[in-house]
Specification:
This protein has 17 helices and 17 strands. 35% of the residues lie in helices and 23% in strands. With 481 residues, the protein is α+β, with helices and mostly antiparallel strands. The strands form three sheets. It has an eight-stranded antiparallel beta sheet with strand order 14-13-10-11-12-15-17-16, sandwiched between helices.
């Protein structure tokens, strides 16, 4: 698809003080809204290359355990059908419905889950037949997904072949589907940055190269590490922090040959380093503890090409580069930094839109203490903040970005809690659960993850201090026996 700016609804990027939001959707009885949580399909090129069947199964299970969270990505719907890779208990379903005021949800779970849920759904003949019977009663079926995977687009075609009127407002057309994997890959966004030097000088990435093969990657990375006391190695597509290696001063031998050998040995542990391009980047030294190093911004490109900026936030990231949450509020960034991120984000969004990408995407960035901002990567899918944004908009209102300080966290361990179940967690946290009158409190967003003695939650506070106070009180309550 050639770039045609005349076909886009051009608009000036808003100032840092202006936030654009979408309003709650009101669907009539002639439309069936269907959301499919296909997170594994989005990352299948990486997950399928993980060495060892048990390791692959573990990664698939880990990804699918957050299926309940993306019920909240539909908080702006009145009713919908949810295709999930994991069962969702009646207790959690009711908790979600009571919280956001949705009267009807039909949850469909294929009997056999391979990881490719769009295929699993179609291959479950009984379930698919039942769905078809329902879908044909509606004039239109709006099919939405976590990611516009090839399997999802294939499912869309199968429904069309069976005389179902399907629309996919958050997916590109078939001839532009390449944009999902291209711009969602480490090499694709890097190529866009290189092409954009003259047009958008602020769109910069850490210095890096793209290579093929573990041997060359080890040599290049060792050279960078010796010269710069640090290096980052990435596979073209990753999952939950896997496929990213961060080496800081002292992590590797100072002798070049030994350093190269060590890196090669590490790369040899997983076959995905053989299958895809490898990106070697300069290490940008920032503190992972100061809470301001990793800004992020999310957009949505509508079917007609119109671009909506949804929010910006700060990401919480471990030393190893693993994402575990966000802080969302208009004041998480100073006005100057926010304006720069919005400006760069709009430029990237315009390029995506012109190429034919449609749907949600975000841009991860790195901000140094010297006010340098680097684009790190882009995720062309629903993101770690999409569900948080949707539920905040629904529960707090269109001014949530200024009215409420929102925390979202995952991977919080509750090892010390006896009998960790959803019911017990809710019981313990009852005094702190989200209150619709005060618009403050804790929201539990997954039951499955509790079985692994972890917690995924959102917290709403009228101020940053209040949000963190609620979080601390929550942690104390969880420790009480």
């Amino acid at each position: 698809m050639k770039e045609d700016k005349q076909n886009l609804e051009e608009e000036e990027p808003p100032s840092a003080s202006v936030k654009k939001v979408v309003l709650k959707k009101k669907h009539n009885h002639n439309e069936l809204v269907v959301y499919i949580y296909n997170v594994v399909e989005d990352e299948w090129s990486f997950i399928s290359a993980i060495t060892g069947e048990e390791n692959r199964k573990e990664e698939i299970e880990s990804c699918n355990n957050s299926a309940e969270c993306y019920l909240f990505a539909n908080a702006d719907e009145n009713e919908f059908t949810y295709i999930s890779p994991k069962p969702i208990s009646p207790a959690f379903k009711k908790y979600f419905q009571d919280l956001v005021g949705i009267t009807k949800i039909d949850i469909l779970v294929p009997k056999k889950v391979s990881g490719l849920i769009s295929k699993d759904f179609f291959n479950d003949k009984e379930l698919f037949k039942r769905f078809l019977k329902k879908a044909r009663k509606y004039k239109k079926v709006t099919l939405v997904s976590y990611a516009s995977s090839p399997q999802f687009l294939d499912l869309k075609q199968k429904l069309i072949d069976r005389k179902v009127n399907v629309v996919t407002p958050e997916a590109p057309e078939e001839d532009c589907a390449w944009t999902v994997n291209f711009y969602g890959s480490k090499s694709g966004i890097r190529q866009l940055a290189q092409q954009s030097t003259a047009l958008e000088p602020d769109f910069i990435m850490p210095e890096g190269v793209i290579c093929v093969g573990k041997l060359d990657a080890a040599k290049i990375a060792a050279n960078r590490f010796i010269n710069d006391n640090g290096v980052v190695i990435k596979t073209n597509k990753g999952s939950s922090g896997n496929g990213v290696l961060i080496f800081r001063s002292g992590d590797l031998p100072k002798d070049y040959k030994q350093c190269e050998k060590t890196i090669y040995t590490i790369l040899n542990q997983n076959e995905y380093w053989d299958r895809y391009p490898i990106i070697i980047e300069d290490l940008i030294n920032v503190s992972v503890n100061n809470g301001t190093s990793f800004p992020n911004i999310e957009f949505k490109i509508n079917k007609n090409g119109k671009i909506d900026m949804l929010y910006y936030c700060l990401m919480m990231v471990t030393k190893e580069g693993v994402f575990y949450g966000i802080d969302m509020h208009e004041d998480v960034l100073n006005e100057r930094l926010a304006a720069r991120i919005i400006d760069t984000g709009y430029y990237i969004a315009e390029r995506y839109a012109a190429a034919g990408y449609r749907g949600h995407f975000d841009i991860d960035m790195i901000a140094t203490k010297y006010n340098q901002v680097f684009v790190n990567e882009s995720n062309t899918r629903n993101t770690g903040g999409t569900d948080v944004f949707k539920v905040a908009l629904e529960l707090i209102g269109k001014d949530f970005f200024s009215d409420s300080y929102v925390l979202s966290r995952s991977k919080y361990t509750i090892e010390g809690m006896k009998h960790p179940t959803f019911t017990n967690v809710v019981k313990k946290l009852k005094p702190l659960l989200f209150n619709k009158k005060t618009k403050e409190g804790v929201m539990i967003t997954s039951e499955n993850i509790i079985k692994q003695k972890q917690l995924i939650y959102n917290i709403f506070g009228n101020t940053k201090k209040r949000a963190y106070q609620i979080e601390e009180e929550m942690k104390q309550l969880l420790l009480t026996q």
